[in-house]
Amino acid sequence: MTAAADAHDRGADRDALLLAARDLRQAQRIPEALALLAQLQAQHPRFSRLYQERGHCHVLERDAAAAVEALQAAVRLNPTLPASWDMLQQLYRLLGDPARAAGAAQQLAMLRQLPPEVVAANSLYADGDLAEAEAVLQAYLRQPVDNSGAQRLLARIHLDRHEPDKAEARLGALLAQAPDYHEARLDYALVLLQQQKHEMARQQAELLLRHDPTNRDYLKQYAAACVGLGDHEPVIDIYGRLLADGCRSRGEAADLHLWLANALKVVGRRAEAIAAYRASLAARPGHGVAWFSLANLKTYQFSGEEVASMRAAAAQPEVQEMDLVYLNYALGKALEDREDYESSWRCYEKGAALRRTANRYRPDIAEACTLRLKQVFTAEVFAERRSWGASDSAPIFVVGLPRSGSTLVEQILASHSEVEGTQELTEIDRYAAELCGRDPDCRLPQTPEALLELTADQARALGARFLTETATYRRLGRPYFIDKMPNNFWHIGLIHLILPQAKIIDVRREPMACCFSNLKQLFGTTNQEFTYSTWDMARHCRVYLDLMRHWDEVLPGRVLRVRYEDVVEDLEGEVRRILDHGGLPFEPGCLSFHETQRSVRTPSSEQVRQPLGRDGLAQWKHYAPWLTSLRDELGDALTTYRA
Predict the structure, then answer these.
(1) pTM given for the model
(2) CA distance 502 to 480
(3) Residue 189, in any domain of the structure
(4) Are 422 and 470 in contact (CB under 8 A)?
(5) Which domain holds residue 316?
(6) 289 with 407, same domain?
(7) What is the CATH number of the domain that holds 488?
(8) Positive or negative torsion for Cα 146, 148, 151, 157
């Protein structure tokens, strides 16, 4: 069954229960109706119309307070429910609250001014009925009417369906017709940000701020775009100013302190970052992401009191699922530091199991993509295109599995006077998606054979485009820069076609150590979804090794392999080898990489600001009793990774 069909069936069951409850109410069987609504709430807690129906029931019971509570819940979830606002207006008057009655009347009047189709579509959208909302909107748009609101809502539907390119196109066209539609421009900036088009997103935020320089939502959007561009100093100032101006809620205060802490962490202001994370927790003690962010510093040691607070937060009956995920990973780290490895593993395991419920990763898709890439990119293909691409040696690509030591290699290179460290750039992945399409689950190229349709001029232009689009991340004017996106190992064929003189470094770590480090790491949003089970992790590791062997065969000598263990054992020898590959003279500063002051955004940010140690080499062995399945699933990868 497809996801859309599954969602449709769930919606049908939900609506059938609501209709049954409504029939019971109309038959004056109120207790039975309320019992059915309680059952519906357990299954669909964010379904606004069940709360509206509950309000109707309580009105018939003449329980005004309970009716108001239910109707308030309905409009919090779905502000486009005219019946709820109408009942609230009357109930507030009955309870002697004229101010709230006037507010409800104002909301009702506003809804009555809008086209009924747009109100209905908004209501359906709020309850997650995307297909039904789209059908209403498409029918409405066939009429000769002003359709700005409908177009904006359609764009939001595209975004919820993980179709950001369609949302971007629709909002761009809408703003060309209605440039003063500021709400749509804010949505447009968000869509651009989600597609990693940070410079364009910042430009849209700047346009909004010209209209309203103090608007908090516009300032937050501008700050988020700056974060994407690696420009953290203005972000620190913006979040500090928003906090100083006073927050609209404790939730907003918790978020602002968290975002401020993240920026402080990236620029190396560790003590201030810790203070800001604690301020976030003071505003919202159960803020799971703040607890996890402290753990994700890697060097932070939780106190016994903090461990007790995390356990208490995780035990709360109303704890949100994502908070529980974050809390389990944070507890895993805290218990690991206490050498309670079994309890630590159980927390990591529970967090991963919860996170995996929303996981779309499919190892069979990754394996099929590897096979197609191997079939498409043969030695003959590269030989026929030997002189293609932009002739610029500035980019240095660092690839590999996450948690392999790639941030360490990046930090070593960025300590050289001729090399600038940027961040994990997304341009190459975006070009691959534009040319090949992207599967919806693993976000890997769907038709890599489309790359063979590139002409020499197009390959050269694409390489030049990469250099132009990444220029915004280069602030120091150095001749070389690093793109440390680990997942670019999928795109080495494309990189070679468009940037044949770029350097590529593959950082590799002993598989048990690397896979374990991934299994206990919580990644943001939908990144690295193969890390939430030993089976997926092992298969992904094998896919990576298989594809890298292919690149070595068809592009011999093109990729420098660096093993993390070799860097630990012989730092100077490996540093010289890395610099030689890049055509760079040796500089002693690369050996004292931990003293280099720069922004680092990966989970290893605090670790690379310390001298190199041996702690990570065998850390996984503490967890060996629970990693037997990982070892079995890795099979011969445990030895062939050295090749």
Answers:
(1) 0.81
(2) 10
(3) no
(4) yes
(5) 285-356
(6) no
(7) 3.40.50.300
(8) negative
